[in-house]
Structure formats: structure tokens, C-alpha cells
């Protein structure tokens, strides 16, 4: 039985920003690391929210605001607060099932204190399960 800790993306390999990071910086980091998802943390590195490229699309469609004005906002303003998470010790098959039922591609991995320690990306999880 594989656990999340066996396949998760390590903390320095996916975008993590502080809650007062400007949206522009956050989007640039997502582009640089080639992942349409990032985690938003506080000063103690505790997960506060998540932000995805889908959040950008939804905001653009639902908020009548010039695009340039979005990019000067803090990332937390446009993020999903209280995101779904998992722990390092969870069974990867259960986490993949949870992700599929919630229709999400990425799920942050947190420790007992709520600090971000990794990320499960659905493609990587599926590859590990079917041993590609």
C-alpha cells in the first residue's frame, strides 16, 4: 500500500506563496513551475488557501473588473479558503478516489500543525498507482 508521502511533490517543487503576495507574482510563479495550482500560506507556513488557474477564469467571468486591477490584489483575495487537504500517511488510492469525487487535480499535503509539506498532483498519483 503506497502512502501519500511516497509520491507527493516536495515543498520546494511546487508554488507556495504568502497570503500578501500580489496576484501577478503568484501567476508568474505558477508559470515558472509549470503548474496551474499554488498554495497560500501564512508566516508560520500554515496552509491558508489554494489558488488555481481555474480561479482566474471564474473571477474574470464573474467580477466586472479590469484585468490589470486583478494583478495588484493580494493572492488571498482570489483564493479558495479552507481547501481540501490530505496527510502524508493517507493511502494514495483513497486520496485519488477523494480527488476524483471532488473533481480536483491537486491536493495539498499538511502535517498535524496545518503546515504545508507537499502536494499530490492527480497525474503523478495515477502514474504511481498503475506503475507507469
How is the topology of this model organized?
Blueprint: H1 4-7, E1 9-10, E2 16-18, H2 23-32, E3 37-41, E4 47-52, H3 53-62, H4 67-70, E5 80-81, H5 92-102, E6 106-110, E7 116-121, H6 122-130
Parallel strand pairs: 2-3
Antiparallel strand pairs: 1-7, 3-4, 4-5, 6-7
Helix pairs in contact: 5-6
CATH superfamily: CBS-domain
Rg is 15 Å
The number of domains is 1
Question: Span from first to last CA?
Answer: 16 Å
Global morphology: globular
Mean pLDDT: 90
Helix proportion: 25-40%
The CATH topology is: CBS-domain
- Biggest sheet record: 4 strands, mixed
Q: How many beta-strand runs?
A: 7
Strand content: 15-25%
Helix count, per DSSP?
6
Order of helices and strands: HEEHEEHHEHEEH
Q: Which structural class should the secondary elements be placed in?
A: alpha+beta
CATH class: Alpha Beta
Spatial strand arrangement across the major sheet: 2-3-4-5
CATH architecture: Roll
TL;DR?
The protein is 36% helix and 22% strand.
Amino acid at each position: 500500500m503506497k502512502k501519500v508521502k511516497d509520491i507527493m511533490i516536495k515543498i520546494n517543487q511546487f508554488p507556495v506563496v504568502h497570503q500578501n503576495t500580489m496576484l501577478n507574482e503568484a501567476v508568474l510563479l505558477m508559470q515558472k513551475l509549470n503548474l496551474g495550482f499554488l498554495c497560500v500560506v501564512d508566516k508560520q507556513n500554515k496552509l491558508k488557501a489554494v489558488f488555481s488557474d481555474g480561479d482566474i477564469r471564474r473571477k474574470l467571468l464573474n467580477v466586472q473588473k479590469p484585468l490589470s486591477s486583478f494583478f495588484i490584489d493580494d493572492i488571498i483575495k482570489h483564493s479558495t479558503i479552507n481547501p481540501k487537504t490530505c496527510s502524508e500517511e493517507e493511502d494514495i488510492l483513497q486520496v485519488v478516489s477523494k480527488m476524483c469525487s471532488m473533481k480536483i487535480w491537486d491536493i495539498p499535503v499538511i502535517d498535524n500543525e496545518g503546515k504545508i509539506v507537499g502536494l499530490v498532483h492527480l497525474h503523478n498519483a495515477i502514474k504511481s498507482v498503475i506503475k507507469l
